[in-house]
Amino acid sequence: MGGLSYPDSAAGALSYAMLLSSRSVKASPQQILDSIIKANQLRPTAIAYETLGRLYGLDKLNSSMVPYLEHEVTRLEKLYAEAGVEETMRILKCRRVITITLVNIFKDFGNAAEAEKYAAEFYKVKNERNTIAAKW
């Protein structure tokens, strides 16, 4: 009795990460980041990456998440190359969210070169998505 049930461990991990990132829970930035990393490892979701960007904007997470996001750009590009049709759009959405988050972070840092690099990646992903959407 008690507790919540989820359709799979990825959904449970995402739910826990969202709980930790809420205002009503006093989780540390590292606990939040660790829980989002775990959730995204099981199944990448745009909402988890959007949460990182939102928390960074609220000064609840710092630049320590940048290496993770940069790694995710590469990891998701590999997943995308291997993805089936149903996974393709979800992964592209994740990549789009990550790249625009990195653009904003590097703009905050005053690093125009890195911001431009990720802006180019953002537009590449956006164009890929539009091409696939047009075929569907």
Please describe what this structure looks like:
The protein is an all-alpha fold and 136 residues long. The chain has one domain (9-135). It contains six helices and no strands. The longest helix has 25 residues, at 85-109. It is flat and about 45 Å long. The model has no long low-confidence stretch (mean pLDDT 92).
Question: What is the secondary structure topology, with strand pairs?
Answer:
Blueprint (H helix, E strand, L loop, with lengths): L8 H13 L7 H14 L3 H12 L8 H17 L2 H25 L2 H24 L1
Helix pairs in contact: 1-2, 3-5, 4-5, 5-6
Features:
136 residues, mainly alpha
Short structural description:
The chain is 77% helix and 0% strand. The chain has helices spanning 9-21, 29-42, 46-57, 66-82, 85-109, 112-135.
The proportion of residues in beta strands is under 5%
Q: Total number of β-strand segments?
A: 0
Unreliable stretches covering 5 or more consecutive residues: none
From the spread of the alpha carbons, the general shape counts as flat
Helix content: over 70%
Taking the alpha carbons of the first and last residues, their distance comes to 45 Å
Structural class: mainly alpha
C-alpha-based Rg, rounded:
16 Å
Number of distinct helices: 6
Could you give a short account of the major beta sheet? none
Order of helices and strands: HHHHHH
Instruction: Look at the structure and give the mean pLDDT.
Output: 92
Number of domains: 1
